[in-house]
Amino acid sequence: MSTILPPTDVIWWKVPVDKSEGIWVSLALLWCLFMFAMMPIWHVYGNQNLSNEAYRTHPEVFQAKVDAMVAAHEVRRETQWNVPVVKPPVGSDVYMLGKKWQWYPALELKKDESYRLHLSSMDWQHGFSVQPININAQILPGYESVMTITPNQTGEFTIICNEYCGAGHHFMTSKIYVTE
Amino acid sequence: MSSTKSLFRTDPGSGLFFNKSAETLMKVNAITAVVFLLIGGILASLVTATRMPTLHTLPTAEFYQALTAHGIDMLIVFIIFFEMAVLYFASSTLLRARIAAPRWGWVQYILMMVGALMTNYAILKGNSSVMMTSYVPMPAEPLFYLGLILFAVGALIGCFIFFGTLVIAKEEKTYEGSVPLIVFGATVAAIIAVFTIASGAIILIPTFFWSIGVISNIDPLMYRVIWWALGHSSQQINVAAHITIWYMVAGLLFGAKPMSEKVSRMAFLLYILFLQLASAHHILVDPGVSSTWKIFNTSYAMYLAVLASMIHGLTVPGSIEVAQRMKGLNNGLFTWLQKAPWGNPVFSSMFISLVGFGFLGGISGVVMGVEQINLIIHNTIYVPGHFHATVVLGTTMAFMSATYFLLPTLFGREIFMAPLAKLQPYLFGLGMAGFAVFMMGAGTMGVARRHWDMAFTGAPYAFEYPAIAYTLMGLTGIFAAMAIVGGALFCIIAVGTLLFGKKVDSKVGFMGFRGADSYTTERPPLLERAPADTVSHKNIGIGGFVAPGTFILALAFLATFVLYYFVNWKYLSSVWGLS
Fold first, then answer.
1. Which chain A residues touch B90 with a CB distance below 8 Å?
2. Which of B125, B297, B406, B476 has the most CB atoms less than 10 A away?
3. Residue A5: which of B298, B311, B527 has the nearest Cβ?
4. Who's near A167: CB < 8 A, 6+ residues apart?
5. DSSP A17-35
6. Residue B537 has what pLDDT?
């Protein structure tokens, strides 16, 4: 009578399964199928899906796009690091870069409007994390990801880095201001 | 034939047979594992003390250094050394066979030891604080990668010795019929290990060449995809290994038989077929991989690996319930459970492992592995909360359970400070469960993992987490302290037993090693099929269910799972629109 001994029955694979086990396996399988279905269903009916849009890029190319946006739409500078705050047109392409150890620049967006947010890293891997709403995405050097964001509340949101990137990891903060 | 020269001894308490060469290898691997557990535990105390906002013990560089070493020494070194001992035990001892190529066993041990020391040395020097994942292009010293490669080669040799021993057992007809379920489970673990180590070689060897300047660039996305075929699959080895130990404890303590050999073996097989490539859930919010790829590879359309764990979650306690009911504890729903040996650390560690792995580790893992829900969890401290529930509550506690069994059986010494050993699993289990739950809570508040300063001192923009996040991180620290005391107690009991535990017979020597006079050249008798049940399944249980208590517990588990799953969708639906 033991799990540590060879099976009692020579043809053990033909021994019928008990009710407790049979029902449980069926219930668990149904639940697993349902959990799978939820993911494609949310792509159709849900409002929070990460886009599949991404491009290969180079740090210099991406930096140039960020600089062009800052030059065109900068509204002010903030903090002792002199971070530009950019107020881009509604619906436009906006850029934010991660580098050791800063998110750059800060953004000012309008509530309930959509923006195409481009993200990339200049050096190592970084984690784009919007607080306190806690939206998180991985940022890789050499890849430019694009996601359409639609802020649904006004206020000040902080971007932090949540992919470990070395000693200055905790310096990486920026802002997204959402206004009416 | 060399088999005639192989030495065996019988353990009078358990009736198990130990082949001398295999026994020595089990001992050195297990002792080494506990030493690394101790080192990893000291590092854990430094890491948690730093993350506790009121203490914030270590400076920045030392924190990341300690965290890197903690990850390597616990998740890789401790666990895999212990798994080597499990593989030797499951093949040689359980099948009553001589071990294949015992000298290669020493090559396994030495390569793993040299590798572990090399990687630790690289971390200690200070230029390799890259975390266990060592994501490129953040560089570590060449020795960091080389150590991991040597360690993996050693582990691969251990797997092949295991397979070789299975072949010897079959050839020399040491057992009747099919291999026991837990040998099957260990085989699954070893097969997954081969796949895991191959993935590790594919990514770590080029990364080593990159670190010495031979290769100019490693694509970070490619690295993540392949690295996680190593990183995630190695957790599947752990799952297969600790579930094997659950079944083993059920068999050893209760004389339990699997409820159905067919179902339990199928469930193990599902791990091989459906878990291995499922590293996709580590890259759910990465650019450059499509949603279709993510959804398919995280679930294979059916979550059959999750199904497998849900099956074991029922069949392990179910088999205990059936065994207890057959012994006469057939009244009510839970008498079988109430009358379980809660004071025996072999049982209590195993049962806490089972419940903790399922309720805390399992549910949280599946939920955060949902493509969209991962957006609100990725890289927060929820993630280490989850995996401490799987790897520490689940795997480590199962290994502790096995250790409590092996100390008298393998090392021939009675448990040192037995009253404290009764308490230890509860202390460690409660500490670890609280630690995991509060970290998951802090993660839902957005606290980042692998982060030195949740106050962002010196950052251009100040950011303050809600007060509750600080409270949760404080509680995380308090429960971590409890777990560390429990873990330290385990190390003291294990090492104390080896040094000071009462010898079960006069032939036991230093650290539980034995002289040649303990062994004979006589071959152990044939391992016979498990005897048929003396009580019919028809005479136990309630309403046609042989394990009604377990079935009710499983339904409670499913209800918790469903509820928590939808709570997370609800939370997701409230955040900014993303498309």
1. none
2. B476
3. B527
4. B60, B61, B64
5. PPHHHHHHHHHHHHHHHHH
6. 87
Q: What is the mean pLDDT of chain B?
A: 95
What is d(CA B441, CA B532) in angstroms, rounded to the nearest whole number?
Answer: 49
- How many angstroms separate the CA of residue A76 from the nearest CA in chain B? 15
Token pair recorded at residue B225: 């995809």
Q: What's the pLDDT score for residue B300?
A: 83
Residues of B in contact with A114 (CB under 8 A): 577
pLDDT digits (tens, 9 = 90+) for B412-471: 999 999 999 999 999 999 999 999 999 999 999 999 999 999 999 999 999 999 999 999
Whether the CB of B375 is below 8 Å from some CB of chain A: the reply is yes
Instruction: Kindly tell me if the per-residue pLDDT of B275 is higher than 80.
Output: no
* Chain A residue with the nearest C-alpha to that of B179: A6
Residue B10's nearest CA partner among B457, B453, B462, B524 is: B524
Task: Please write the tens of the pLDDT for every residue from B494-504.
Answer: 999 999 999 98
Closest-CA residue in chain A for B63?
Answer: A167
| pLDDT one-digit tens code per residue, A88-111 | 999 999 999 999 999 999 999 999
Taking all residues of chain A, what is their mean pLDDT, rounded to a whole number?
Answer: 96
Q: How far apart are the first and last CA of chain A?
A: 71
More confident residue, B301 or B70: B70
Q: Is this complex's ipTM strictly greater than 0.90?
A: yes
Backbone angles phi, psi at A162, to 5 degrees: -120, 20
pLDDT average, residue stretch A11-21: 91
What contacts B11, CB < 8 A, 6 or more positions away?
A: B17, B18, B409, B410, B412
Q: Domain B22-177 classified CATH 1.20.120? A: yes
When pLDDT is averaged across residues B213-240 and rounded to a whole number, the result is 93
Question: Is the pLDDT assigned to residue B276 strictly greater than 90?
Answer: no
| Beta pairing, strands A93-99 & A115-121 | parallel
The strand pairing partners of A126, in sequence order, are A139
Delimit the domains of chain A by residue range. Answer: 54-179
Residue boundaries of the structural domains of chain B: 22-177, 190-201+247-338+543-579, 341-515
CA B97 to mean position of chain CA atoms: 26
The whole-number pLDDT of residue B1 equals 42
Q: Report the pLDDT averaged over residues B467-487.
A: 97
Residues 6+ apart with CB under 8 A from B42: none
pLDDT of residue B277: 62
Q: Could you tell me the pLDDT band of residue B239, with boundaries at 50, 70 and 90?
A: very high
- CATH superfamily name and code, B341-515: Cytochrome c oxidase-like, subunit I domain (1.20.210.10)
| Helix runs in A46-161, H state only | 59-73
Torsion sign (Cα): B233, B122, B126, B138: negative
- B258: nearest Cα among A17, A137, A32: A17
For residue B390, which amino acid is it?
A: T
Using one digit for the tens of pLDDT, what is the confidence trace for B535-546? 888 899 999 999
CB B22 within 8 A of CB B95: no
- CA A156/CA A176 separation, integer angstroms: 6
Query: Is residue B458 a contact partner of residue B392, using CB atoms and an 8 Å limit?
Result: no
Alpha-carbon B504 to chain mean position: 30
CA of B500 vs chain A CAs: smallest distance (Å): 30
Element (H, E) at B148: helix B142-171
Residue whose structure tokens are 């604080």:
B129
Looking at the DSSP bridge assignments, the partners of residue A146 are A118
- Using DSSP's 3-state secondary structure scheme, residue B223 falls into helix
For chain B positions 522-541, those within 8 Å of chain A (CB to CB) are 527-533, 537, 541
- Residue B575 CA to residue A67 CA, distance in Å, equals 29
Which of B247, B257, B302 comes nearest A33 by C-beta? B302
Residue type, B322: V
